Structure formats: C-alpha cells, structure tokens
Amino acid sequence: MSAYQLGEIVSLVFMAVALGMDAFSVSLGMGMQRIRLKRIALIGVVIGLFHMIMPFIGIIVGKAISNQIGEITILIGGFLLIAIGAQMLFSAFNHEIKKIVQPMGIGLLLFALSVSMDSFSVGLSLGMSGVKTAIALFLFGAASMVLTWMGMILGKKVHGLLGVYSEILGGSILCGFGLKLIFG
C-alpha cells in the first residue's frame, strides 16, 4: 500500500468518525428512552446502512446536478430532528400523549434519515473527487453504527441516573442538534 493510499484511507476514517458523531449525539438523546439492547442493535445497523446509502445517492446525484441540493437536505434533516425532539418533550410533560415517533418502523426510518442527511452532502462532494467509493461507504456505515451503539448505550445509562428528566434532556438534545443543522 502506497503512502498516498494510506493517507486517503486515514482521511476517510476521520471523515467517517466526523459523520458518525451526529449519530452519536442524537442517539444519546434517543437512548434515554426505555429501549432494549436488541432494539439498540437494530437501530445501529439501520443508521449504519443509511450512512452508506445516503452518501452513495449523493455521489450519484453529485455527478448529475449542482451542490445546492445539499443545503436543502440538511434543512430537512434539521426539521425532522426538531420534530422528534419536540414530540419527546411534549410527551415528557403530558403522559397521556402517546409517543408518535418510536425507534421502530417508520419512526426508525425517519430517525435514521434525519441523522444521515449530512452524509448525503458529503456524498455530493465525494462524487466530484473520485475517492474509492466502496471503502468510503463501508467506513461511513461502520463508524456511524458503532457510534450509534455507543450513544444509545450511554443514553440508556444516563436514563437510569436521571429517571423522568432523561426524556426532557433527550428531547432537548434532539431539538438542539436539529437547530444546529439548520443554523450551523
């Protein structure tokens, strides 16, 4: 392996961890709900898959259209996170409200889509650079899956310490991260 190839892989690893950090942050908030370890494993796998699919779509679209669509997807992801976080906050204060967004079914897909929107934008730029697509996608998926698991398990531990207030904290984290995506 040449020094150039090694440098490319190292930079892709750093990019993968950076992309996975949003999944970690958001999973920390989501993990504060009462979620079983089996469900946490599934959520990590789904988020990992989305962190592979979204940049792949971005690479394909990046070759076809301009970079302006990347900003729109980040806004959509931010609004999705705010909606999920607000729903968690409202259900924490009103116990009669049934949780609309659960990390299963369509809720899991919305959650995974919202945390992988930034990887779509990265895919747009990767499509222009000629990076080794298979290696990049594998690293993005693996890093986000592991970081999601770490965030969810840490959130589960924090839930045990904070009790009822953990859902408020979790919803606040999701809303905050959504605002960061929109305005940051």
TrEMBL record:
Recorded hits in Pfam families, A to Z, give: Mntp (PF02659)
GO MF term list: manganese ion transmembrane transporter activity
Compartmental location: Cell membrane
Manganese is among the record's keywords: yes
| Source superkingdom | Bacteria
Write out the entry's keywords from A to Z. Answer: Cell membrane, Ion transport, Manganese, Membrane, Transmembrane, Transmembrane helix, Transport
Q: Which residues cross the membrane?
A: 6-28, 40-60, 72-93, 105-128, 134-155, 162-183
Could you list the residue ranges forming a coiled coil in this record?
A: none
Q: Which InterPro entries match?
A: Mntp/YtaF, Put_MntP
Q: How does the entry describe its membrane topology?
A: Multi-pass membrane protein
Recorded GO cellular component terms are: plasma membrane
What function is annotated for this protein?
Probably functions as a manganese efflux pump.
Q: What family does the entry list? A: Belongs to the MntP (TC 9.B.29) family.
Q: What is this protein called?
A: Putative manganese efflux pump MntP
User: Which species is listed as the source?
Assistant: Virgibacillus oceani
